[in-house]
Amino acid sequence: MFSTLLAAAILFFTDDLAAAKVVVESDIPCKPFHEIYASGRELCEKMWDGSFVYETNRSRAYTMWFFDKDNPNDEVTRNLGLSPPSVCHLRYLHKDTPGPEPDTFSECHPWKDHSCCTEDTVSSVQKLKESYGPEWHWDRCGPLTPACERFFVQEACFYECEPNAGLFRKYPDSDYNSSDPSHNRWQMSGMPIWSDFCDAWHRACHNDKFCAHDDGNFFSCAAKYQETATTGPTEGLTVGIVFGCLIIVALIGVLGFLVYRERTGQPMFKPLEQQVS
Ligand SMILES: *[C@@H]1O[C@H](CO)[C@@H](O)[C@H](O)[C@H]1NC(C)=O
Ligand SMILES: *[C@@H]1O[C@H](CO)[C@@H](O)[C@H](O)[C@H]1NC(C)=O
Asked: Which of 227, 194, 200, 238 is closest to 17 using CA atoms?
């Protein structure tokens, strides 16, 4: 009886762990980009939860990448009647003020002379992808083609390194309330992005797969992933452990009772001959 129950407990444990893994994968619906986003506009605006807006007027639109010696985004800021910031307003891995980086700074090279990121945080594609935790990995629906992944790298560099991005904080200093838990200093809102950049991103990723949850909102996808990765499996695991412990306690109790009966001369299981006689 003991070994049967033990086997049942072990089966319960392994079964539970297997079930937890399935939850994580099936809860993230993956679809090709062209099925999630109808256009470059949808990609830029939906994927980033309103951080960016699609802008066709080049003189009012920022670009997430450039080859010019001087950052063309400074001119865009001036065209919008603002001044390029002298501090890094976004707060994630950012520096306090924009400045030059060493010669080894290459992954996010456009910002080498004047960046809000340090070489250390943007040293490689891998580093950029893993900076925000597993829920923000852009290849959770399978590896992306290099052409598609490049745009995610550019966006990550832009977010970390571009001083002008700090002008579009969701909770700018004027509204920011540090004791309000819904406020933060990392989120962006409504930054106009050059339409051609968004359209090119949409073309490059056409057949790649991405999380389709909530119309391909990367923020909801990350939250969903975290929910299933933390509450899902660990909750299941906790239940499994508690249940397993209960079974073990019950077994010890039964065993103790049998020993007690045996010692007090009233054994539960008498030898066969004795029972018959
Ligand atoms: C584009 O934006 C600039 C700067 O705000 C403005 O002067 C210009 O009229 C706009 N062009 C169009 C076609 O709307
Ligand atoms: C800041 O947030 C806290 C907590 O939500 C709130 O009680 C307080 O009134 C807020 N302060 C301002 C100035 O809005």
From this structure: 238
pLDDT-derived band at 95, boundaries 50, 70, 90: confident
Residues 246 and 168 in one domain: no
Pick from 50-59, 77-86, 119-128, 246-255: least confident: 246-255
- Alpha-helical (H) ranges within the chain are 2-26, 33-36, 40-47, 72-79, 125-130, 146-161, 195-204, 213-216, 218-263, 272-276
C-alpha 126 – ligand 1 centre gap (Å): 39
pTM of the model: 0.76
Number of domains within the chain = 2
Q: Which of 124, 127, 108 is nearest to 116 (CA)?
A: 108
178 CA from centroid of ligand 2 (Å): 8
Residue 18 clears pLDDT 80, i.e. is over it: no
Phi, psi of 209 (to 5 degrees): -105, 145
20 and 39 part of one domain? no
Residues 52 and 122 in one domain: yes
- Tell the residue nearest (CA) to atom 13 of ligand 1: 57
